[in-house]
Amino acid sequence: MDSLQEIIQNTTKDEWLSSLPDYQQQSLIPLLLKLPEEDVAQNWIDSSFKTTSPFSADNSKKSYFDYVKIEFTNFICGNPKYDEQRNEIKAQINVHDGIKTFIVSSISTAIGSQIGASAVIIAPVIVILLSLAGKIGVNAYCEMSHY
Amino acid sequence: MYFNQIMDKVFIIAKVKDNQLMPIGTCFALSKPGYFATVAHNFNGSDNDIVICLNDQFQNGYQNTVNPKFRFSGVSIVAANPLLDLIVFKSEEFKINGFQIGSTDEISPGKMVAIFGYPHSEHGRVVLTQQETIVGAKILLENGSLPSKHIVINIQARPGQSGGPILDMSTGKVIALLVGAYVPTNEAGISLGGIDPQSLNQTTHAVSAHYLEGMY
Q1: Which residues of A touch B (CB under 8 A)?
Q2: Global pTM?
Q3: CATH code assigned to B3-90
Q4: Total tally of structural domains belonging to chain A
Q5: Min CA distance, B163 vs chain A (Å)?
Q6: Å between A133 CA and nearest CA of chain B
Q7: Residues B40-84 pLDDT 10s
Q8: ipTM of the complex as predicted
Q9: Domain ranges of chain B
Q10: CATH fold of B104-212, please?
Q11: Which member of A42, A70, B165, B194 lies 3.0 to 4.6 Å from B174 by CB, making a disulfide possible if both were Cys?
């Protein structure tokens, strides 16, 4: 394989999921059997227990999903602001053993720093979006996302 | 359960804003030095400007409530599961040997538990407080269609206690983390003076601590 696009299109959902730690997989896999993938991604990052009023002293809840989606589209569809990270991935493709984990980590870190969110928290969303983009093809994904 | 057994293991986390520490909630040290656990909603998706503070408000057994100064350290998230409302984070500076982790499977309704946290910290009050009560029920709650194990503890909690450890008084293990109060729905509540009146009840939810396994 010689491009990020090819890797995205030739990697299955299960392969992407295996790049996450076990404890995250254990929560995501049952949900992916019940709900559409995008709903799972949104639930992961933005939902809360419906019948529990949280007792943090700071209750200004942020919603991240829409921002992650926009930046993910920017990343895989060629926005120049992610040139450096895409070039870094390209340089690692034929030399890095765990290239899929490297891709998830690179995209999560880049997008996390862009939107002010932890890469650890958004990595499962990136995994699901990579799987969705791979399923329909990167070009079609970018077109559907009006990039 | 004695207060002095836990006061070097339970801490306040705060956000640094305009050079001020704004208390957010409670965390506790895990058995791996330098690692701490709390509920994910305390972090709101990011560890930017979040710090952990030592209990420097103590003076000869009393807690100074007038302008106490705290040593604090920046933290970084090492593991997160927002669906279970759990986060494990790390401090490079504070290497503390903390609690053993148990599970809500190990306790039955009617058994005594101790709760530690910092109630009313939304007003800047930082007072490590112990409460004791019984487990009222064991329940499954759903977040995003994922059911998870919780207990109901029969006590009214307040903002700042989120993430506080709930200890089985017979073993000293942390069996759950305090999440918040039961409300019919958290989507359309009203707020009076910053308080959701629906949350003023003695049905407090806590998520099982066993979900922390594999996160550190």
Answers
A1: 21-24, 26-27, 30-31, 34-35, 39-40, 43-45, 47-62, 64, 116-118, 120-121
A2: 0.94
A3: 2.40.10.10
A4: 1
A5: 8
A6: 23
A7: 999 999 999 999 999 999 999 999 999 888 999 999 999 999 999
A8: 0.92
A9: 3-90, 104-212
A10: Thrombin, subunit H (2.40.10)
A11: B165
